[in-house]
Amino acid sequence: MTAPSEAPWLLHGGTAVSLDRTAGRPVGRERQLDEVHGRLGDPGGPRLVLVRGERGAGRTEFVHAVGELLRAQGTAVLAVGCVPGDGVRPFLLALRLVMALEEHRPAAAHRRSTRSARPATEALRAAEQRDGTAMAGLLRAALAQPGLAPVVVLMDDLQHADAASLAVLRETDFARVPHTVRLLASEAARGGQGATGWESVGGTHTLVLSRLGSEETTTVVARRLRAAPDTTLARRVRELTLGVPGAIDALLTGWTRQGAIRVADGHAFVGARRPTPVLSDDDRFMTALDALGEPCRTVAGALSTLWPLGGRALLLIATSTGLPTNEVSDALRALTDADITEPLPALDVDGTPTPAPTSQDATLPAPDDTPPPGWRFRLPVVAHAVRERLGPLERSRLSATAVEALWAEQDAVRTEDAEGVTPQRRRPVGVALPDEADAVAYLADRVAEAGSLVDLDRAVAELTAAAQRLHPDSEGRGVLRWCRAACHLVERPADRVAALHRYAKAAYNAGDHHTARTIAESVLRNLADVLGPRALQDTAALFTAATANDLDWRALSRLATARWWDELRLPELAAVTGRALALSQLERWQEALDLLSRTEPVWATDAHARAKPAYFRAVAELALGRPERFRESLAFPEAPYLDTGHVHALATAMFDELLSGRDLRAAEALLDAQGLTADLLAPRSLFLWRHLQGRWDEALESARWMLANNQTSTPAADSHLVPARTAAVLLARGRPTSARRLLDSVRADTARGPEEGPLEYSLDAVEAELLRALGDPAGAEKALRRGLDAAAVRGQIAGTDELWAALAETHADEGRPGEAATCLRHLRLISDRTGDARTRLRYLLASAHVQRQTGRAGPGAFGTVHGNLREAVELARSRSQPYETAVTLVAAAEAGAGPPALLHEAYELFGGSGAALPRFHTRTAMREAGTTVPGRRAATAENEQLLATLIAEGLTNRQIATVLRLSEDAVANRLTRLFARTGLRSRTEVVTAVLTNYRVHRGAAEQG
User: Fold this and answer.
1) What is the reported pTM?
2) What average pLDDT score do residues 866-893 get?
3) Per-residue CA distances from 553 to 125, 517, 548, 653, 789 (Å)
4) Average model confidence (pLDDT) for the chain?
5) CA 513, CA 548: separation in Å to the nearest integer?
6) What is the per-residue pLDDT across 481-498, written as a single tens digit (0 to 9) for each?
7) What are the start and end residues of every segment in region (Disordered) (predicted)?
8) What is the DSSP letter of 159?
9) What is the pLDDT of residues 336-352, one digit of tens each?
């Protein structure tokens, strides 16, 4: 498979995505921007508008955006900024204001000022003499001078201004200032509220920039990355930055520098297992901390590790750093005053946060020894950066402090429980985190970081228990990290092997197949004598599966040979299992069956030994067109004799296989029978499931993530299901060029040998569908023949029904009824042989299509058109797959095998999955049938959106006409109307509009 960095469909701009910092309205501030702009332009509005916000809230960007709006309408804008250090020069800001306003005075006023002392000169003298009364008078005069042209003065970062100037400003009655003079100021505010002192000043208005909400944060990420963030990326940004724009920018900058941002199909992802970046030393949040000096930096470092311990963190910080408790308390107060930390909300018994105390409450314990609620960093991304800046030994020592404290409390609680004093607590004691999983993860992280500084046996047990408790690690809390740490801490050889095996499994489940493969091979080569037969069998299977998912086909081919396993001198059970799986992953089905048949006495000894080889045999027979044994395996007779992990693994493999064959109902029945839920499924399983359910938006989200991280291979008989079905969805949504690029990007290396790598028949089937849509039947036939020929070499039957059906239809369209009939006979043989409902449905639809196209619609070897289609409708409805049902309904209605109302039903089903292209064709069929298309305005908007999408895909008018089944003149007319309706002037502008997700028809937003 092509690596993501080489796949043009997957990535735009490589893995190092540039941030988009284009000028414009700050996201999430549109309402406030309009408000401030309106107030400054209102003759009766406030003369001073003060914008407040916490560090990173975007005050500077906001006031300058307002300034640009004012300049655009012809208003003069003067900038008088404040910088650190201004505070030591009394009246500096007031002097700058007077000078700026004097420079803006009309020329006549300047000439008059030559006959007396200029205001700037007098202001300079007042500043030197520190004469506040004189300075106040000069400022009032500068603000009130007659004939002054309209002007707005921007005063950024008032928190750096000198106190004397601020006092003068606060004593000024701005209500008396002429409406031609306005001041727009920004000021840092603690907790987003700002300091006191401005409330009673006349003629002023204060606006607080709050943190961005969830949707606004996602919009910021999309604008910066020029791609829509996936759910995980958006969630991580929100959790780490809490919607503070400056933190969002710093976080995205860090990920970009790491090359961690991947873009697939216009959607952005954080690469798999990418860590949270550490803010740079010159970042605003870090410089604010560094400016406090010691001991604040030391206390902040300790707090970054110990803050979940609540109020006890103060004493633990003092103990671990050697600082007196009063110095720690003072440092915590200074950190809170600097808006770096904040009081920690107390937790009720049920874990519900209580209102946070004020900063004055966050001090040493009260006289009654009631501990304070504690402290935390205002932004998690800052806490992470502070913790990561600590040295490894310091982190280990602090983590050990946390672990020992928590273990001591756990021991005390157990003692009290044994004595009947207190009830058992459900989460780790003393961790101030309301989410139980986060609490478990915190303790496990501290144990992993403490390493050898804590009891090793208890540490390994703690890490193992946490990994098991939070498996599968869908939130990325750290199961893989804990398993790795346990491997480093375990001492006994037997325990070490078990720890290594857990680590390999965790790596495999996390998608780190190379690590899983490396560890498993090391165990097989160096520690096989420590493992029993069952454990060796499991390790051999894990090693082989990881090699396949690592896409190393040549290595996998070596694993398919007896010689490779003989060199390791493993028990025959492990060797046979690993080799059979390798042959299966290479889709060399008959060889796998021959091997399993010869060695059945080796692996059929008990339920555990039999489970995997028996499943490999069932899948091999299924691929060769003999599904009976696989269907019997769905009853899961071995389940009572296997542990939960094995049951889960086999059940999900069966689930994927059923979805591969498009048997949605059986797959969902299996989930129910085994008690599996969506959160336990891998992304590939979720994709296959959501795809058949018609939930294509959700399916595409999983697909894009897998494609961006090069993790699309599936353990089913068809390993190319994810890219093939993703390409089919893109085509159905009017994106044939994107579909083609995707297919090209995942094509296997053409230089490999004929026995290496999986078959590509599902890719061939979608390529043929694409070529037929573009009017290239010869190319479609070539693709279908290629897929069928390759499948025949390995005896593959499963999945080839799609190719035979498409080939029959292609021959019929080209007027070759004899060849079409031959394909139908092949298809009917497969259907009769397998008894598969999907194959039967494809046969019914293909035979009806062939007979309609060739004019042979009467009774014959393939049934009647109407009879076949009526059966097809009944069968499709029973299978409950929206897209499949819609296709069948359209075929029946167009052939007159059902009422025109079927078209309405199909139309809604296509709309539910977002299949824009067949929905367009259905609209055409409805008009031809004389039925009304619902929602005229919405239909017009959809037509124009589809047309714009096809233009953005780079299709010519002739190609668009072919795809839409229209004449070129009709396409030209539609383009003319599109340009007139939207105001777009060229195809290039249409492409830009689509790529920026702009609705080309305004009515679409109202109707959509």
Assistant:
1) 0.85
2) 97
3) 83, 13, 7, 21, 21
4) 87
5) 9
6) 999 999 999 988 888 888
7) 343-374
8) G
9) 999 999 998 765 444 44
**How many Å apart are CA 703 and CA 698, to the nearest integer?**
9
Instruction: State the CB neighbour count (10 A cutoff) for residue 240.
Output: 20
Q: C-alpha angle with apex 736: 732 to 742, nearest 5 degrees?
A: 105
**Nearest-5° angle of CA 861, CA 862, CA 867?**
125
Q: Which two tokens stand for residue 797?
A: 């039957």
Task: Kindly state the tokens that stand for 307.
Answer: 């803050």
Q: At how many degrees (to 10) do helices 380-388 and 296-306 cross?
A: 110
The Cα-based distances of 51 to 159, 189, 525 in angstroms read 12, 9, 67
- Contact yes or no for 385/301 (Cβ under 8 A): no
Q: Alpha-carbon distance 906 to 920, whole Å?
A: 11
Average pLDDT of the residues in 675-690? 90
Residues 6+ apart with CB under 8 A from 128: none
Does the pLDDT value for residue 984 go beyond 90?
no
Q: Which tens digits make up the pLDDT trace of 989-1001?
A: 777 776 555 444 3
**DSSP notation for 716-738:** SS-TTHHHHHHHHHHHHTT-HHH
CB atoms < 10 A from the CB of 452, how many? 11
Residue 366: pLDDT above 80? Answer: no
> What's the pLDDT at 273?
76
H or E stretch covering 619: helix 607-623
Considering only CA atoms, which of 845, 735, 852 is closest in space to residue 801?
A: 845
- Per-residue HEC secondary structure of 964-988 comes to HCCCHHHHHHHHHHHHHHHCCCCHH
Is residue 555 exposed (0-12), middle (13-18) or buried (19+ Cβ within 10 Å)? middle
Spatial separation of the C-alpha atoms in residues 228 and 243, rounded to whole Å:
17
- Among 581, 661, 724, 623, smallest CA distance to 1 is for 724
DSSP secondary structure letter of residue 116 = S
Give 569-579 pLDDT, tens digit per residue: 999 999 999 99
pLDDT band at 432 (very low <50, low <70, confident <90, very high): confident
Residue among 371, 369, 359 at smallest CA distance from 332? 359
CA triplet 417, 422, 424: central angle to 5 degrees? 65
**β 181-188/228-229 pair status:** unpaired
